[in-house]
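re the bet — no i am not wrong, look at it urself. input seq straight from the record:
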Amino acid sequence: MRIDRRTATGHIACAAAYIIFGINVVVCRDIATEGGLHPVVLFSMRALVAGALFWLVSLLTPRERVPLRDVIRLAGAGVLGLLTPQLTFLHAIAHTTPVDLSVMSTTTPIFTMFVAAIFLKEPITWKKALGVALSFGGILWLILQSTFGGSGASETEPIGIVYCFANYIVFALYLGTCRPLIARYSVVTSMKWMFLFSFLLSLPFTIPHLPHSDFGAVPSGVWWEIGFMIVFSTFIAYYLIPIGQQRIRPTLVSMYGYLQPIIAIAVAIETGMDRLTLTKMAAAALVFAGVWVVNRSRAADPTADNRKINT
């Protein structure tokens, strides 16, 4: 199957972004458990610094005029693509292990597929349905073992799973509904507005927590991790995701989420933060079997990756 340069760029951007996200799972687990800062405070820090970087970069790029109606839509995209997913992720990582969270993250394509079918009229073939069913079966097995296995080895809690699925559903809505809007503007233009509104909307929730935030007590190593989270996992990764959105289909973008558990599991095991059991390996095998089936479905349509969204 021939892939043009534009499509290849989209694939590379998504791959790089989700590799960063995989590392970020382990980094944020440490921040959430050792940093002592409330998730909404961490999000406001991310949005403020990353947003400022995007606005600075915008001064060096051609200016784009954004009508008021699209500014409002970008505010909504900020809620779906930044504010809610990042807040739910920071809450989730405090109540789940890196391996469990990463494997559960592979359910995003399931939700994205249905959202794209509703809003973008992408067909759901029987192979896609079979693939996501296999993946979901693996996720369900992992959840049952981690939460109700009774071994005491897992630190995953039911509330963490709730936050995980809230994160995946909202981000799937973002991928499935916001692509036409994101495709109208450059990455810098869309991101600077989305981060601006996300930061402003987070302030009413952040301000009450500031008096109780002891920034001086945060270990120096955690500050380095916060720096990675802000610069790489927020600014660079969120610069790359819209590049992928503009060039490949939403379902394909979300499928790159399967890189995240591979990277996160490797880093978590290497650092001693988590361990990979036979049950988790079997559950992951089911998940990746589903990926293979979905990929076979995509391969049957050689023009799928080159379809464009009318804007």
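see?? The chain has one domain: 5-303. told u. also Residues 150-154, 301-311 have pLDDT under 50 and may be disordered. so pay up
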